[in-house]
Design goal:
The chain is mainly α. The chain has helices spanning about 40-45, 55-70, 80-105, 115-130, 140-149; strands at about 5-10, 20, 25, 35.
Length: about 150
């Protein structure tokens, strides 16, 4: 993952932070933005536990994202975008699950605990995608731990 391209990212690019105002799309809650993994924002959106995108919609969004990246910079055609998306998705899923647990258990905001099952489902899917991919990264300890959950 360290060798993957880095971009300026929103870092919390999920449905609750995308608003429509006066017919225009607005992004909010970007104070945590920084330089980070290429696929982190798109995977934050397609793996958003607040809204359920079916697989077809998720693939359509990621395919569109990748096609736009390649249009903007031909160098992105030479990297394995699938690997970037899978690993960024895993990273985002683990971050979100940690946030749900912290908010639900430590901050008393129990409603966040409701999002943990979907988060685990998406994390398991990401691990399966990683195992089917060309990536040399395998994460056997994480895979085993998540399967036990």
């Amino acid at each position: 993952m360290e060798k993957q391209p880095k971009i300026y990212m929103h870092r919390d690019f999920q449905s609750q932070n995308i608003m429509v105002h006066d017919g225009r799309i607005r992004f909010v809650d970007f104070q945590g933005s920084r330089i980070g993994p290429l696929g982190y924002d798109i995977m934050s959106l397609v793996n958003d536990c607040y809204i359920h995108f079916d697989r077809k919609r998720r693939h359509h969004l990621t395919d569109y994202y990748c096609s736009r990246l390649k249009e903007m910079d031909a160098a992105y055609s030479a990297i394995d975008l699938e690997d970037c998306l899978i690993t960024a998705g895993l990273q985002r899923n683990m971050q979100a699950l940690g946030a749900y647990g912290f908010l639900g258990l430590n901050q008393g905001k129990k409603q966040y605990l409701d999002f943990i099952p979907r988060g685990l489902e998406l994390l398991k899917e990401g691990i399966r995608n990683l195992q089917k991919s060309k990536s040399p990264l395998r994460l056997p300890c994480l895979s085993e731990m998540v399967e036990r959950l």
